């Protein structure tokens, strides 16, 4: 291919062309965009009946369990159903710490949604507790993940 040289030392095709418009870089959504901020929490010595009241009153399915402001577990609606279905169990007599999951999946608020969803899928989790340092700042659930998916599909 033969090109001619102009006096300015530029190739003719680029001699007077403007810089092409830049396409904005699409940022991955992060958890803070979809999480439930300042979630309702419960203490480990509270009863399951108290946990049920909080869940019903506030229409939530996941309660981070805090002891002295520190995350020590998580109680889900599924955990409640399981314990309440056992024979001779009175939810007023059973404490949250007896039914909660202790190995809580925690993430930072700026963690990409995709990373969190991958872990939730692998571990079959319904939620992640969002923390900044030791402080619980939110809960990210499968419903939040579906909201992120819905918005992403709507952008196409």
Task: Write structural notes for this entry.
- With 156 residues, the chain is α+β, with helices and mostly antiparallel strands.
- The protein has one domain: CBS-domain (Roll).
- Helix content is 30%, strand content 19%.
- It is built from 5 helices and 6 strands; from the N terminus they run βαββααβαββα.
- It has helices at 48-58, 77-84, 96-99, 113-123, 142-154; strands spanning 36-37, 62-67, 70-76, 106-107, 127-132, 135-141.
- The protein has a 4-stranded mixed β-sheet with strand order 1-6-5-4. The chain has a two-stranded antiparallel ribbon with strand order 2-3.
- The longest helix is centred in the last third of the chain and has 13 residues, at 142-154.
- The model has no long low-confidence stretch (mean pLDDT 87).
- Our count of helices gives 5
Elements, N to C (H/E):
EHEEHHEHEEH
Number of domains: 1
Which runs of at least 5 residues are low in confidence (pLDDT < 50)?
Answer: none
* Shape call: elongated
CATH superfamily: CBS-domain
Radius of gyration over alpha carbons? 25 Å
Across the major sheet, the strand order is 1-6-5-4
Distance between the ends: 39 Å
Fraction of helical residues = 25-40%
Task: Let me know the number of strands.
Answer: 6
CATH topology: CBS-domain
How is the main sheet built?
Answer: 4 strands, mixed
CATH-scheme architecture: Roll
- Structural class determined from secondary elements: alpha+beta
| CATH class value | Alpha Beta
């Amino acid at each position: 291919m033969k090109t001619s040289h102009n006096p300015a030392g530029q190739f003719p095709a680029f001699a007077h062309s403007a810089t092409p418009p830049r396409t904005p870089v699409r940022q991955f959504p992060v958890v803070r965009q979809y999480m439930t901020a300042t979630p309702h929490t419960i203490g480990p010595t509270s009863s399951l009946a108290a946990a049920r009241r909080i869940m019903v009153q506030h229409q939530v399915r996941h309660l981070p369990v805090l002891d002295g402001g520190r995350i020590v577990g998580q109680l889900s609606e599924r955990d409640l159903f399981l314990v309440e279905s056992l024979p001779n169990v009175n939810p007023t007599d059973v404490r949250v710490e007896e039914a909660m999951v202790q190995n809580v999946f925690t993430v930072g608020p700026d963690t990409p949604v995709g990373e969190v969803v991958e872990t939730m899928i692998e571990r079959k989790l319904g939620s992640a507790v969002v923390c900044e340092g030791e402080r619980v700042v939110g809960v990210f659930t499968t419903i939040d993940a579906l909201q992120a998916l819905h918005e992403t599909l709507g952008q196409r």
